[in-house]
Amino acid sequence: MAFDAESLVRAALAAWEEARAHEAAGRPYKAISAYRRGLTRFLGYRRSVHSLDTAAIYYAFGAMAREMTQQLDRAGAQRKSLEYGRMALVASHLGDPAGGDPQRIPGVLNATRAAPVHQRVLGGGQGPLLAPAVRVAGGAEARALLAGLLRKYPKVRARKRAGWPVDSGDWERGFRAVEPYIQAVSPSCVGLDDHAEMLQLAAESALLYRALSRFAPEYEADARRAEKDLAGMRSGSRPSGIRPSGVR
């Protein structure tokens, strides 16, 4: 019987729905288990298929990883939330058509309208349109999320490996296992300590949201929040908590 790679996508999306249901019902540990199962299926799919609609896959992968990171944080799993925050950064960065570069946003928003991307849906077929602005915002949110966790848990030393930056030429080999994801470092943060990495990611998030808000006004509130958080980090004020932007 031929291997059905698409079954891994369906399993990942089903696990995502299950995780959200557990979370809504107040079952955090079952939610975390379902999130982990779904992320593993996405890893398996990316490892098995080399010619695929990467934009939609990375968007879903990144969004699920961000949700799991927030769930781990609420559950008090400090080290794990930092690790999966790094996974969320990788997937969200790879799903961002601007590649984390604010200057590319105007061109990306125009160019990708001519080649629309659609979400992957549980039943198969073509799902809703996946706007390029949403994918860019996912990368901005992932940066804000990890920066917030680094600020919230300054004494937690989660593993990170500078030899596995997101855009490394060896990155494809990293899809064999989860470790390269949970130890990942953004290209702009290689060699930085945790505090400097926090500030760099927060600054990138603020710049991305601000550039995005000029073309998509619905992100104005996110831009202001990111700029406020960055100012607080630079001044050394106490964090008020991790606040996701709500991007899915």
Structure commentary:
With 248 residues, this protein is mostly helical. The chain has one domain. 60% of the residues lie in helices and 2% in strands. The chain has 9 helices and 2 strands; from the N terminus they run H-H-H-H-H-E-E-H-H-H-H. The termini are far apart.
Question: What layout of secondary structure does this protein have?
Answer:
Elements: H1 5-24, H2 28-48, H3 54-74, H4 78-95, H5 105-111, E1 117-118, E2 129-130, H6 132-152, H7 179-182, H8 194-213, H9 220-235
Antiparallel strand pairs: 1-2
Question: What can be said about this structure in brief?
Answer:
With 248 residues, the protein is an all-alpha fold. It has nine helices and two strands, in the order αααααββαααα.
Search tags:
2 strands; 248 residues; disordered C terminus; mainly alpha; globular; 2% strand
Mean pLDDT: 83
Question: Which structural class matches the secondary elements?
Answer: mainly alpha
Rg, nearest Å? 17 Å
Oligomer: single chain
The unreliable regions are 240-248
**What summary fits the major beta sheet?**
2 strands, antiparallel
| Apparent shape | globular
List SSEs in N-to-C order.
HHHHHEEHHHH
What is the number of helical segments per DSSP (H or I, 4+ residues)?
Answer: 9
Count of distinct strands: 2
Helix content: 55-70%
- Count of separate structural domains: 1
Terminal residue distance: 35 Å
Largest beta sheet: what is the strand line-up?
1-2
Give the DSSP E fraction (strand runs of 2 or more residues): under 5%
